[in-house]
Amino acid sequence: MLGDIIFRSVILRPLSADSPSASIVIPTLPSRDHSSVVESLRRQTVENFEVILVNSDELDVCEARNAGIVEADSDIILFTDDDCYAPATWVETALSRFENDDIVLLEGTVDVHSPGPRHYIGANLGVDRDAARRIGGFDSRFAGWRDDTEFGYRMESALGLDAIQYDPDWEMLHPGEFGSRRKLLNEMRFKLLYPRRMHDLITTPDEPLRELYVSTRREWYRICGRLYETLLYSRPEPL
Fold first, then answer.
1. CA distances from 22 to 11, 54, 89, 165, 211 (A)
2. Which residue intervals define the domain Glycosyltransferase 2-like in the entry (predicted)?
């Protein structure tokens, strides 16, 4: 499977280094213009990193990111998208955070969408390569909606919250609106797998009826989610 993913991909390296301190993985399509994000990465305050463009219209975004994980030559992988623009200190800031050896996942913000910690926006994520490979990378069953958040939640489950850092000052710029659109089936899968975290993060009960509603929904998802995970869902295999 892994060989097929890379074989069907077009791996481009507009920036390379002999022993890169970071690998920046960007999924893209042949029909899309990625020149802006690459140009922003040429203007970084550090130089020793590589940029990996996974340029394929045959792969979904999860397969493309996983191909980038496999191709990366650095122990630290930074993810962004082809319609983003990196501030000049973006790479330098990420590297400074990973100087803490206990951190395996770095979560930043995006200027047009910064909901806070534990939402794991794929346009601005950093991860330890071996940890990402160990949990199987991104899951294509969530491609296009919730794939990045689901990846973050599996990292939480595997390595604990102490290994994850949210930095509100590590920002990625995203001109225009996000291109992803809500997918109902993905949302249902996600809520079934992670009922408590979904409700704890998204809903804050502020009145008795609201609290009753939230607790009832959470219990329903807990029961159904246990059945779903037991009967239908399997974790991705290591990359």
1. 17, 16, 13, 17, 44
2. 62-123
* 1 C-beta neighbours (distance < 10 Å), count: 8
Strand partners, 51: 15, 24
**Domain chopping of the chain, boundaries:** 2-172, 184-231
Reference 26, options 110, 84, 100, 105; nearest CA is 84
**Residue 190 structure tokens:** 């996600």
Q: What is the pLDDT of residues 121-156, one digit of tens each?
A: 999 999 999 999 999 999 999 999 999 999 999 999
* Contact assessment for residue 79 and residue 120, using Cβ atoms and an 8 Å cutoff: no
Output b/e per residue, 145-182; b: 16+ Cβ within 10 A: bbbbbbbbbbbbeebeeebbbbbeebbbbbeeeeebee
What tens digit of pLDDT does each residue of 50-93 get?
999 999 989 999 999 999 999 999 999 999 999 999 999 999 99
Strand 11-15, strand 164-172: pairing: unpaired
C-alpha to C-alpha distance for 71 and 207, rounded to whole angstroms: 50
39-73 in b/e form (b: 16+ CB < 10 A) is: ebbeebebeebbbbbbbbeebbbbbbbbbbbbbbb
**Which pair of structure tokens corresponds to residue 30?**
């042949």
The percentage of residues in the chain with a pLDDT greater than 70, rounded to a whole number, is 82
DSSP string, 157-169: HHH-GGGEEEEEE
Task: Please state which CATH class domain 2-172 belongs to.
Answer: alpha beta
Tokens encoding 65: 């990111």
